[in-house]
Design goal:
homodimer; 226 residues; alpha/beta; Rossmann fold; five-stranded parallel beta sheet; 7 helices; 5 strands
C-alpha cells in the first residue's frame, strides 16, 4: 500500500517515514521548499528519502515568503537559549501560519493522484504544544476534510487516514525508535538556523529539544554543532 | 476589514472579489500559478486585481505538476463539445486533486498573517457539482479546520469565515451581478485551453458554461473566441 509521508529532513519526519515502511507501506516522500531559512533540510530530506527506501521523493517549490511572516521565513529573529520548560508553552515566532494545513493539503493532492489513502506526518503534540496545527483535534478535523475534499472520498473508494504515529511520544522515545528502525540520524537536521555548512546553532528551540532528547535517550547526538 | 480573495482570473472569482469590495472589505487577492495550461489566467488576474481595487495582489508559484494528474496540469486532453446537461454530472478529467484545499490552505496562511478572518472563494455548486471541493459541506468542514489550524483560532481572536457568495447561484446570475458591480468581464478568462493570444476555444466545459450564462443573462459575451 502506498503512503504519502511528509519528510522535512528533521528527526521526527525521518523516523515517521521509517515507521511507515516498517508497517509495510511504500513510501512516497514529500518535501516542501517553502522559503525556509534552514533550506539545508531539503538536502537532508533527499539523502534520507534514499536511505529510507522511498519509492519516490517529490520536492515541491512553494514560496510562502510573500504571504506569511515567521522567524523561519523572514527576518524575524529565531529565539535562542530558552529554558526547555518554556518551549512549547506559547506559540513561538517560528510558527509558520497554517503551515501544516498547506503541507497536508499538498500531501492529500498527491495521495489522491496516487490512489493512496494514507498520509503520514511527524507532528508531535508534546514538544510543540504551542503549534495549533500539531494538536490531535486538528489532525482529526483534517481527516474529515480530506474525505469531503476529494473525488476518492465522494466515490467511497476509501477513507483517508492521517497517521501521526509520534503525536504523543517524547522526543527521546522518537530517537530510540529511530535507532531501532535503523534511521540514519546523522542525516537528519533540526536546527532552525544552521550555517552554510549545515552546522547547527545548538541554541534555538529545535536544537535544544533535540539535544535533550538524545541525552535522555542515552544515544550519542551525531549533530555537528558550530 | 481585510479579506483574502482567491482570484483565478475567471468569471466567478472576479465577481466574488467585486462582491467582497461591495460589502466593504479590503481585498487581498491571491492567485496561484500552479502549472495550469491556461496560465494566461494569471495575467487576467493581475489586470482584474488592479481594476477591482485590490489592496494587494499576491501571485504564488506552486508547481502541482509533479504530484497531480489532471487535464489542467498534464497531457490528459480537455473534454470538448459536451452537452450542457452532462457537465457537472460526473467528476471531469479537469478536476485537479484537492486543488481547493491547497488554495484555501494558502489563503488561510495569508489571512492569519494579515490578521484577517474572512476568506472568499468563487466556488459554485451548480455548474461544478462534479467537483467534490465545491460543495457546501466541504466548505463548512474547511471553516472548522481553519479554526483549529491557527494561532488566531486558538487564541480566540476571531473565527474564520469561508465566504462563497455564489455557491448556489446560477452562472447567468453571476454575470448579471458582475455587470451590476462594474466588473470588467472582458478581462475575465474561462477557457481551459486558450491559444497563445488568449483566444478561447469555445468548446471546453468552461467555455460552454460561460457562453450559456451570458446568453441566459442577456449580456453580450465579450470573450474572444478563436
Amino acid at each position: 500500500m502506498k503512503a504519502v509521508v511528509l519528510l522535512s529532513g528533521g528527526l521526527d519526519s525521518a523516523v515517521t517515514a521509517a515507521f511507515a515502511r516498517s508497517r509495510g507501506f511504500e513510501v512516497y516522500a514529500l518535501t516542501l521548499r517553502y522559503g525556509q531559512r534552514h533550506v539545508i533540510e531539503v538536502v537532508a530530506a533527499e539523502r534520507l528519502a534514499r536511505s529510507l527506501g522511498a519509492v519516490r521523493h517529490a520536492v515541491v517549490d512553494l514560496d510562502l515568503r510573500g504571504i506569511t511572516a515567521s522567524a523561519l521565513t523572514s527576518d524575524i529573529p529565531v529565539p535562542t537559549g530558552r529554558a526547555a520548560a518554556d518551549i512549547g508553552r506559547d506559540i513561538p515566532p517560528t510558527y509558520v501560519p497554517a503551515r501544516n494545513t498547506v503541507f497536508l493539503a499538498l500531501a492529500l493532492a498527491w495521495a489522491e493522484t496516487l490512489g493512496s489513502f494514507d498520509l503520514f506526518i511527524g507532528a508531535n503534540a508534546l514538544d510543540y504544544s504551542g503549534y495549533p496545527d500539531c494538536r490531535p483535534e486538528y489532525l482529526e478535523a483534517f481527516e474529515r476534510l480530506a474525505y469531503l475534499a476529494t473525488k476518492a472520498g465522494i466515490e467511497g473508494a476509501g477513507k483517508f487516514k492521517i497517521h501521526a504515529p509520534f503525536l504523543q511520544t517524547t522526543k527521546a522515545e522518537i530517537v530510540r525508535t529511530g535507532v531501532r528502525l535503523g534511521v540514519d540520524l546523522a542525516a537528519t537536521t533540526s536546527c532552525y538556523q544552521p550555517d552554510a555548512q549545515g552546522a547547527a546553532c545548538g541554541a534555538c528551540d529545535s536544537c535544544l529539544l533535540r539535544r535533550k532528547a538524545f541525552a535522555e535517550a542515552g544515544v550519542a547526538d551525531p549533530t555537528r554543532y558550530r
